[in-house]
Every structure is written in structure tokens, then in C-alpha cells.
Design brief:
Radius of gyration: 21 Å
Distance between the termini: 33 Å
Number of domains: 1
Number of helices: 16
């Protein structure tokens, strides 16, 4: 990830704020609709694979084809959405290239299998292999003085190469193929369980990426480049909560079967780990933000220092949200995640509309931070089903002691 970040920074320096802004806008715009292609199946399928190991191929195969259909729908939605923007033809062409790669997300079901077996090393190897090839290609393009379109094509290649590496890793397990396994009853069951997550994933990407889209429409491509440079630095560690929570999810589910006290004790420890890991990252990044931005990106990106100083604290609530999302899955309360993310998306759009006008790109960072605080802490106060979780979160913030009794 560090190597990938450094190559990404080199690409940003090479492209400059304006072209990097176009590139970042295209990625942000497409990612908003990528949640449709995912079909909200990630944690649902992992849960079912853990609880019903005998029907592995049925779950994997059905989820695979549901994701294929979701990718087709997502591409159509992206095509319709571009008609409501002020994009030129070239920018829309870039969007269609990256959106076409959503079909390869279908192979993520292999990731679900490895998660259910707590075999994260295989997924790590796949992602490192993909990142290595991607980084080498980007370095070559920079040295050759390539145009922006080639970096857009690399983004498509990234999705393809990860799908190939996942497929190869699954074949090494020698447990047969799942591609021909599709069950209508299982499909309806998965859709019934996951539809709130589809909406919540869409809303989550809106409130995490709408800022870049709105900055482009309200301020311009260069400001998107400045903002995106800061966001990339603040998000470099966002893989950590995903890896940690994916690895611990089976253990948390197992504790729920054994004892409620043990279950909540593990949740408490997970919240504590998430929050304080993020704080340990945020404090030095805040103090060194201006120096770090100038060192890595150069003087053209100086304005990104203040954005980073604000946005890095959003990570505390992103880390917390990753753990809390696992609780909602375990308790079959996915609908709550939908309510939270709809609230967060709506709040972020409203705040962006006013804050970007007043504070520019810094306003977008404030909007993201405020909306994440409201969604991950404030919402729990008004839902009695989450009062205990609210207490666990507050305990994790103000009393970070690893007690055996939770």
C-alpha cells in the first residue's frame, strides 16, 4: 500500500492539479454507483458461508451472477447520470471506460470464500500482485510522458488483473468451480437480505465521494485535484479496518453463539482497537500535514495541507463504522445501516452546498467529518436498539482499557 501510495503521488505530481482533478473526478463519479454492482452481498455471503458450509458453491455461484447483473445495471445508471452533469465528451468517455470494469467485481465472491475461512493471506497476495503490476505500468507511463487516457485505462486493467488473480487463487484450493451454480431461491434470499445494503452502499459512496463531484461543479477541476491529493493521504490506511474486521468477523459471530457477555466484550475491544488505531494515525498527520503535502506533492498542491489536517480525523469514524457495520450484520439490522447512510449522504450534500461556497475545498472536508460524526455517534442516541452500542463506542473513546469483561 505504501508503494502504491508513492506511485500515486508521483502520478499526481506528473499530471498536475488540473489533470489529476479530472482523473480523480472520474474515479469518484464512477465509484458512487459501484455499490449497485456489489449488490450489498459482501457480508451477507460471508455470513451464510460460515453458517452453512455445505452449500458453498450455491452461495458463491448465485452471488457471482447477481453481481454480473448488478454491474450491467450500474453501467446503465452511470450512463444516465452523466447526462445531468456539465462534463465534456472526453470526461464522459473516461467515466465509461472505468465503469466498464465493474463487471470484474463479480469475482469478489472468491474473496468472500477466503474471508469465511479466515484465509486473508490469499487475498493479500492477490491484491499485492495486482498493485505491483499496476504500479510498474504507471511508472512506465510517467517515464514515457503518457497522456491522461492511459492512466484511465490502467484503472480498468486494475479491476481486470485483480479478477484474474482471484480466480487463480481459488483454483489453487482445488475445490471445484462455482460458476455454473445458480439457485433462484437462494438468489431471492440473498436479495431480500441485501437490498438495504445496496441502498446503504450507494448512500455511503455518495457521502464519501459526492464532495469531489460537487467541488468539480462548483469550483473546477484544479480544486478537485487539490482536494483529492489530501483525501488520498488521509485514506491510505483505510484498508486496515477492512482487513481487521474481516478477519475478526467469524470470531465475533462464534462468540454470539456461545455467550452474550463474551460477544459484547469482543465488540468493545474491537471498537477500542478501531478508534485508537485511527487516533494514533491522525495526531502526527495533523501536525505534519502542510510539510507532508509539500514534500510529497510539491508546491502546486500546497492548499491540500489544510484539507488533510481536517480530513484525517474522518478516519476515526470510518474505522469505527467498519466495526459497527459488522455488528449490524450479526444482528440482522442492515436496515439501520441504510437509515444511517441516507442521513449521512443527505447531510453531506447540504453541508457541502453551503460550506464549499464559504470555505472552498476546506468546507468539503468539514462536511465529511461532521456527517460521519452524526452518522456513527449521533444516530445511536435516537435509536433505542443502539443505546448499548452508543455506550460501547463512548467507552472505547474515553476509557480505552482492554478489560476481560468488556
Amino acid at each position: 500500500m505504501i508503494a502504491g501510495l508513492l506511485v500515486g503521488i508521483w502520478v499526481a505530481r506528473y499530471l498536475g492539479p488540473k489533470q489529476f482533478g479530472v482523473f480523480s473526478y472520474v474515479l469518484a463519479f464512477t465509484s458512487i454507483f459501484a455499490g449497485i454492482a456489489k449488490m450489498g452481498l459482501d457480508n451477507i455471503v460471508v455470513r451464510d458461508l460460515i453458517l452453512d458450509t455445505d452449500n458453498r458453491d450455491v452461495y458463491l455461484g448465485t452471488a457471482f451472477w447477481l453481481k454480473v447483473m448488478g454491474a450491467i445495471v450500474a453501467f446503465a445508471v452511470v450512463a444516465c447520470a452523466t447526462t445531468f452533469t456539465s462534463n465534456d465528451t472526453t470526461t464522459n468517455f473516461y467515466i465509461f471506460i472505468i465503469a466498464g470494469g465493474m463487471i470484474f467485481q463479480s469475482f469478489e465472491v472468491i474473496d468472500f470464500y477466503f474471508q469465511s475461512k479466515v484465509l486473508s493471506k490469499y487475498i493479500s497476495l492477490c491484491k499485492m500482485t495486482q498493485l505491483l503490476f499496476s504500479s510498474l505500468i504507471k511508472i512506465y507511463l510517467v517515464l514515457r510522458g503518457a497522456g491522461l487516457v492511459w492512466f484511465v485505462l490502467v484503472s480498468l486493467f486494475d479491476q481486470f488483473s485483480l479478477a484474474v488473480s482471484l480466480g487463480i487463487s481459488y483454483r489453487t484450493q482445488k475445490i471445484g468451480s462455482f460458476y455454473l451454480s445458480f439457485d433462484k431461491r437462494t438468489a431471492w434470499k440473498l436479495i431480500k437480505d441485501s437490498w438495504p445494503l445496496i441502498l446503504s452502499a450507494l448512500m455511503a459512496m455518495i457521502y464519501m465521494r459526492i464532495d469531489q463531484v460537487m467541488i468539480k461543479e462548483m469550483l473546477g477541476d484544479q480544486e478537485v485535484g487539490i482536494y483529492s491529493a489530501a483525501v488520498r493521504l488521509s485514506e491510505v490506511c483505510y484498508f486496515l479496518p477492512v482487513i481487521i474486521t474481516n478477519s475478526l468477523f467469524p470470531a465475533i459471530l462464534s462468540a454470539k453463539k456461545v455467550n452474550e457477555d463474551l460477544y459484547f466484550a469482543r465488540l468493545q475491544k474491537l471498537y477500542t482497537l478501531m478508534i485508537w488505531t485511527a487516533i494514533v494515525i491522525a495526531v502526527p498527520m495533523t501536525l505534519l500535514s502542510n510539510w507532508l503535502v509539500e514534500l510529497l506533492y510539491g508546491e502546486a498542491y500546497n492548499a491540500a495541507g489544510k484539507v488533510l489536517m481536517i480530513n484525517i480525523w474522518a478516519g476515526v469514524f470510518v474505522f469505527l463504522s467498519a466495526a459497527f457495520g459488522k455488528f449490524l450484520i450479526a444482528e440482522n439490522l442492515a436496515i439501520i445501516n441504510t437509515y444511517r447512510t441516507v442521513l449521512g449522504a443527505a447531510l453531506n450534500i447540504v453541508l457541502n452546498y453551503f460550506f464549499i461556497k464559504i470555505y472552498g475545498v476546506n468546507g468539503a472536508a468539514f462536511s465529511t467529518l461532521i456527517s460521519l460524526v452524526v452518522v456513527n455517534i449521533g444516530y445511536d442516541i435516537f435509536d433505542k436498539r443502539l443505546h448499548q452500542q452508543f455506550k460501547l463506542k463512548i467507552n472505547a473513546m474515553v476509557y480505552p482499557v482492554w478489560r476481560r469483561n468488556g
